[in-house]
Amino acid sequence: MMTNVLIIGATGSVGQTTRNYFLDNTNDNLTLMSRHPQRLNIDDTREKVIQGDVTDQTIMSEALKGQDVVFATLSGNLAKMADSIVKAMDKSDVKRLLFITSMGIYNEIPASIGAGGNLSSNPMLQTYRNAADIIEASDLNYTVIRPGWFDNSNDIDYEITHKGEPFGGHDVSIKSIANLVVRLAHDSKLGSRDSLGINRK
After folding, report:
1. What is the number of domains present in the chain?
2. Residues 51-90: tens digit of each pLDDT
3. Cα-Cα end-to-end distance for the chain
4. What's the whole-model pTM score?
5. Where are the beta strands (DSSP E) in 35-106?
6. CATH for 163
7. The pairing of beta strand 29-34 with beta strand 47-51
8. Are 146 and 197 in contact (CB under 8 A)?
9. Enclosing domain of residue 51
10. Are 88 and 61 in contact (CB under 8 A)?
11. 10-residue block means of pLDDT along the chain (201 residues)?
């Protein structure tokens, strides 16, 4: 089965690794959205590029045409970006949103792993939490993904926790995040309207 996937934030570390994982492990078609697409060396047979800002509704409506899944891995004012993505998806017929936030946004990290990573002691996480709140209030088929600290090791070895459960571990490989995103993109029931923590087993 071939899926059309829009990757927003395609030039970041998670975006690049996930894009390569899609190319290597699926026959999906990818639309790469970036503010700096000149950094992308694309495979013309399966990829196209859209330059622009996620907060621009005109560009978003163009980017969403024909897509099955939206994967967003962004930094900056995430709440503003999430709001724009949800609005644009509501206007289009695209329902499946996979959105990267961070562990700690629900104060779910236990002391044994390091409670200092929780929102209650790390106000920088507030924009991630606000973004998650906006997405969870939408009627989209969303999955919020909350990774631990990510690294570039080559393992695909992870466990998933759900919203309301304590977070399972401190770190995770970007490759593990990419593996989860590809699974979610191909199974609309997996993680549906849920928030998944991901950490190395």
Report:
1. 1
2. 999 999 999 999 999 999 999 999 999 999 999 999 999 9
3. 30
4. 0.98
5. 47-51, 69-72, 96-100
6. 3.40.50.720
7. parallel
8. yes
9. 4-200
10. yes
11. 95 96 98 90 95 96 98 97 98 97 98 95 97 98 97 97 97 98 98 98 95
